[in-house]
Design the sequence.
């Protein structure tokens, strides 16, 4: 199983501040792993896209920290092999690494809040529409579109307007 590196966290943190190469383990679809891939491209770093095998996934998932995807494998410049797991953690790590989380602690928390809100909407959609029984899917989708999604859009449009309608939630990020 891929374990998180333990030990001198200051040394590990110092290693992470240096150039590294990355590998993303995720299905070849645009879902929870898509933002990670986008961030790596935006960061202009060397990375590799890995896909698990559909037939061997039941065994392969035992090699991941939480038996779920995505997983980010990091090879630091000084040779450390590190692992991060869980989409939100990986995304926020990369956003911070590529200076996308604001200019101060408060801006960082605001950006994290908007990210969390988006992740919550995605999770709600998956639970209420994607993974529901066929007999309630149509009603759940209608409720999602007219209720949850509409509220999300209205709320987020207000936050974007509060930031000058520049296409960002906080400053220029």
Sequence:
């Amino acid at each position: 199983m891929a374990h998180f590196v333990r030990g001198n966290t200051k040394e590990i943190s110092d290693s992470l501040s240096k150039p590294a190469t990355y590998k993303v383990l995720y299905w070849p679809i645009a879902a929870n792993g898509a933002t990670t891939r986008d961030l790596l491209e935006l960061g202009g770093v060397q990375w590799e896209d890995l896909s698990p095998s559909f037939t061997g996934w039941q065994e392969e998932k035992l090699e991941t920290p939480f038996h779920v995807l995505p997983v980010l494998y990091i090879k630091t410049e000084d040779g450390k092999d590190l692992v991060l797991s869980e989409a939100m953690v990986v995304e926020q790590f990369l956003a911070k690494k590529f200076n996308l989380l604001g200019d101060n602690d408060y801006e960082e928390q605001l950006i994290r809040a908007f990210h969390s809100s988006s992740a919550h909407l995605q999770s709600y959609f998956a639970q209420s529409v994607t993974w529901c029984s066929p007999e309630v899917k149509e009603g759940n989708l209608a409720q999602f579109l007219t209720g949850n999604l509409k509220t999300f859009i209205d709320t987020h449009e207000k936050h974007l307007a509060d930031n000058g309608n520049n296409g960002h939630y906080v400053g220029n990020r």
In short: Strands lie at 20-25, 47-50, 71-76, 81-85. The CA atoms of residues 15 and 80 lie 7 Å apart.
